[in-house]
Amino acid sequence: MLSKSQAKLFFLLATAGFSGVFLYLTVDTMRQVPERSHEDLLTDQVIAGKMLWEENNCMGCHTILGEGAYYAPELTKVYDRRGPVWMRTFLKDPQAMYPGQRKMVQYDFTDEEIEALIAFFDWVGKIDTNGFPREPDLKVAGVVPTSTSASTGGPPAPDTFTQVCQSCHSLAGSGGNVGPALDGVGNRYSAADLRAWLADPQSVKPGTAMPNLNLGDDQLDALTAFLMAQK
What we know:
The chain is mainly alpha-helical. Among the domains are: 41-126, Cytochrome c-like domain (Cytochrome Bc1 Complex, Chain D, domain 2, Orthogonal Bundle), CATH 1.10.760.10; 159-228, Cytochrome Bc1 Complex, Chain D, domain 2. Helix content is 49%, strand content 3%. It has 11 helices and 4 strands, in the order H-H-E-E-H-H-H-H-H-E-E-H-H-H-H. It has helices at 4-36, 44-55, 78-82, 84-92, 94-97, 111-126, 159-163, 185-188, 191-199, 201-204, 217-228; strands at residues 63-64, 67-68, 170-171, 174-175. Helix 2 (44-55) crosses helix 6 and helix 4 packs across helix 6. The longest helix has 33 residues, at 4-36. It starts with a helix and ends with a helix. 22% of the residues are buried.
């Protein structure tokens, strides 16, 4: 049994020792932050995206880097999971992507703000957190992992197809099953019909579940050429 003086000495030495360990770990952690967080990639655009994230209280619904709410999807790796084309389309009009299914608020972000948010998510996804938080199970019922090589010939699949279209449609066994499979679609429709459908589905078939993705001319041309090659 320790005497009073021995107990006091033990307390002081243990306190000093553990304080030293704590300070060392703190300094070591701070030393690694610039490299782990890729501080060199922290551009003005990324910072602007972070400000938008905070100003709109996105953490009130979403989780990022293990912090936030669990009402909406976790977004730490959303850039890798969805890709910039899908994110750009969704942030522009969440309800257009999933009519009547999504509770995401329409924030009316400008194109500049959307690009800033995408840059922020890209930066967050590159942070080395030493395996934390644990990589989530990204499997969705009825969805097969997408593939960028699903084409049976012709031009390569554009990003719009792999990042957006395959969320609902499948091709060569890869993609979702919400919409019709696109195998052989080039035999069923003309290029003009496909382009008109992609440009404004509602004008071709009112009430269709296919959203208007507000695609640009270059995206429409690339998608039409790719889909016409699926025969």
